[in-house]
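Researcher: Can you fold this with pyridoxal-5'-phosphate in place?
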Amino acid sequence: MAFTGAFHGRLFASLAATDRPDYRKPFEPLVPGVHIVPLEDWAVADRMISANRTAAVIVEPVQGEGGVRPLDPEWLGFLRELCDARGAALVFDEVQCGLGRTGTLFAYEQTGVVPDVVTLAKPLGGGLPMGAVLLTEAVAAALKPGDHATTFGGGPLVATVALDVLRTIAEPGFLAAVREKGEALGAALSRLAAVSPKVVAVRGRGLMWGIELVEPAAPYVTAARERGLLVCTAGAQVIRVVPPLVVTREELERAVAILGEVLA
Ligand SMILES: Cc1ncc(COP(=O)(O)O)c(C=O)c1O
């Protein structure tokens, strides 16, 4: 089971759990048996997670492509309870929100809910392609070496780089600095929103923020790029601001100033 607004990737199986018709259409029929149900609808989750039929529930603790949406921790806790009661695995896709992005090593640490499986990728290899999946002992017991292998998986070059990324994130003060910079960025974006009639909402955690607009975000992304600021969209009407975790306060101030110009 996956949820509306979800983005789990463009591989064949993860696409079946991704709520993006434009990405899905060219590859249909997709992997069968994946249900995409309404996000944060308690009754639907209760009805749909079945002891006999549900293998796993996959969710991003902070939806990325779906508009930068931190999910309600209570609802995630409810999913945890349902999965425990009905023998389903709870999978947190932290490919985008994990590894320090939200100010803690894993985004789930801020929710109080511990998943059975965590997926990681984007920053893991510091720009080189590397993904990882973390499993509880119980889930890992279902896999044997080779089941989940891939030709270039865990090669020495990317593994060395990934180790360095993890060491950097683990340096004393690194995540605290992400949280401090993130709070400053969130406050500055909220001030921007207060004076811009084009902004509907500002949402985020750590250094992962979304600015929801009343209209398509793409032209603002282009305008920002022309002024030297790289941001992207997250869905049609959200500007996504995901700076490098090593960004400086001064760079963030410049970024907010540029966003102010383009929104004006
Ligand atoms: C939450 C999440 N999961 C998975 C992925 C991986 O996507 P892909 O397989 O298309 O690279 C992404 C990429 O944006 C993502 O944001």
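Model: Folded with pyridoxal-5'-phosphate in place. The longest strand covers residues 199-205.
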